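yo

u said u wanted the structure for the complex thing, so here. seqs first:
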Amino acid sequence: MTEPRKLTLEIFRYNPSDPDDEPRFQRYQLIEAPGMTLFIALNLIREEQDPGLNFDFVCRAGICGSCAMMLNGRPALACRTLTSSLDTHIRLAPLPVFELIADLSVNTGKWMREMSENLEVWIHTTIEANLDAIEPPMEPSLAQEIYELDRCIECGCCVAGCGTALMRSDFVGAVGFNKIARFRLDPRDQRTDENYYELIGTDDGIFGCMSLLACQDVCPKNLSLQTQLAFLRRKMLRTVL
Ligand code: SF4
Ligand code: F3S
Ligand code: FES
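structre next:
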């Protein structure tokens, strides 16, 4: 039987609400167990070594998006990452772009809410809601296309991995473009491309995207962001040409 590996985790520590605290990396060591994820490793560290360590988890199943962090310099979901897929030396830091709460915990919710409000990511219709009426059926293939884009879990990985988002604080980000693509597909939303142009036809919008494609590389839900972004750019250009 092979000896279990000893893991060294270097974890970013900083509490911005404590005036005496300084940003630093702190080193922890633990013995790897079979099937260990980063979620399990971080919990063990918190239980056995450092109860003050801050990080976020809710679902532990790649669904809620709250455990995204920089793993060896690349955004990833900690609950979906097996330590056996990594070297024994692991470096963890909070996602950039988002407001730091403490250590590995960032406020993606605040960023996502602002983005959602700015882009008005809800159905816009002039048809009065009638709760007794039966909704007209949607073609299954169209419903499937919309469902595909709705798989986004708002983890923030695509934003944290994007060079443009790092430089431009108001950049919509791939998550926002994906939402516009989703509502643009939805026949119940009566907005036109001119309306969408008002929302994303700027340098902080689709014209600021430099096709760096890290968003698609790091998306844990494997959304086809590259296709959506290129399509939206063409559509938005067409509204002004
Ligand atoms: Fe996360 Fe992908 Fe959604 Fe971006 S598009 S927030 S990477 S699930
Ligand atoms: Fe950023 Fe993705 Fe565009 S990484 S620059 S949003 S292609
Ligand atoms: Fe929900 Fe990781 S804890 S996605």
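The longest helix spans residues 225-240. Residues 57-60, 62-67, 77, 79 surround FE2/S2 (inorganic) cluster (ligand 3) (CB under 6 Å).
cya
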